[in-house]
Amino acid sequence: MDTLEFIKKLALIARQDSGPEVDVSGRVLWQIRSARTLKVAPLTFFAAASAIAACLVLFFTIHSWIYMSDPIMEFFTPLQETLLW
């Protein structure tokens, strides 16, 4: 018997062989149910605090942007206060 023929015969036998059937669904479902749940309260508090801080920064930025004067206009401010006539 040739070595190649022997390997082909083993491959044919291996193709016909079926693997063992093992049901692991019960164990997997048990592990999923018994897993600890993540507490969302600290994350919610942190997100709320970050949102409040962002709103405050936005408020002060818009407030500063509205009342910020043009630097060039600072040169003409003394001329507006003096009487030309």
Q: What report would you give on this structure?
A:
By secondary structure, the protein is an all-alpha fold. It is built from four helices and no strands. It is elongated. The model has no long low-confidence stretch (mean pLDDT 82).
Shape: elongated
Low-pLDDT sequence parts? none
Note the gap between the termini: 124 Å
- Tell me the major beta sheet: none
The succession of helices and strands, N to C, reads HHHH
Give the overall pLDDT as a whole number.
Answer: 82
Key features?
85 residues; mainly alpha; 4 helices; 0% strand
Give the structure's gist in a few sentences.
With 85 residues, the chain is mostly helical. The protein is 71% helix and 0% strand.
Task: List the SSEs and their pairings.
Layout lengths: L2 H14 L8 H10 L6 H27 L5 H9 L4
